[in-house]
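Kindly review this record before class:
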Amino acid sequence: MREKTNFKNRLAGLKTLMKKNGVDAVVITNNLDQYYLTNFFFYPDETVLVVHPKGILCFTRDLYVVPLQKELPELEVFGTDQRLENALKKIEEMPIKQAGFDASKESYRQGTLMRKAGLKELPSLISQLRREKDSDELKRMRASNKIAYMAYEYVRPRIKTGMTENEVAVMLEQFMRAQGATAVSFLTIVGFGENAANPHHETSMRKLKNNEAVLMDYGCIYQGYCSDITRCWWHGKNEPAEYTKVWHIVDKARRAGIKALKPGVATKEIDATARGIITAAGYGDYFTHRTGHGVGMDIHEEPFNSADSQAILRVGNVVTVEPGIYLPGKFGIRLEDTLAITQKGSTILTRK
């Protein structure tokens, strides 16, 4: 059931940002931004929304007209194939002083049409709203990350020598779907042995051998919200001293990064904290990515825990902490949790 209070609050928040940016109407074409505003899921390129002073116009496929009229009576719905063109024509006919659009999320064709129609290029207004999750979003994200964590607990004891990376990925994904997930957050990464040294390894038919590294980086989408978790361990009884050493260095960096998460802290400080531990241990050249990223309806969104970020953590942000060390030809270790920023610090969402 759609939360009407959230709908009203999000629409009010958007209109506040519209006023600050000098527009009285805004065109929304990104399907996740549309879902955030309406809690009604459209596939990409199916719908154009126009938020204006007196309401919301919705130009969409004919098949959505009846469901939308039932679920979202606040919308004025038009079934059409020429969605953007008809939206721009309608804007021209209305008493709208200045309309705008999110330039960063538009295709070249649609952006060109809107510029020619006199629409103003805007920063990502809804992305700004999406950074700070409300209670309903946090509830969904907790559930999504709980499913991902439970998948780890289910799959790890069932992994056997001779299984392929793909077989493990399938097991993870089947478990998460059985728990209510609708999709994966991104392509599941399972890496064995030297494959774990590639942070974005493409899961393959490579078989697991006895006594080698395992890395799993994955997540699911539950009620529209993503989860993200990475776990690593040694498969076999003869764990090398080097693997044990590196694992504990990465875990120390992970724990320090989590401890540093607080409202008002610059995200680049989170990166510096985790990276400093790995660098001090002599592995700085083998930590080849940022320490984390925001998570929500998108798997990667603001704010980013990176050295070049200017973001400041706020209550309601959801971010990952995921330091890693990757030794080419040997193994890689990344330990990742997803956390919500609270008044006092943070709380781990990737837990049971």
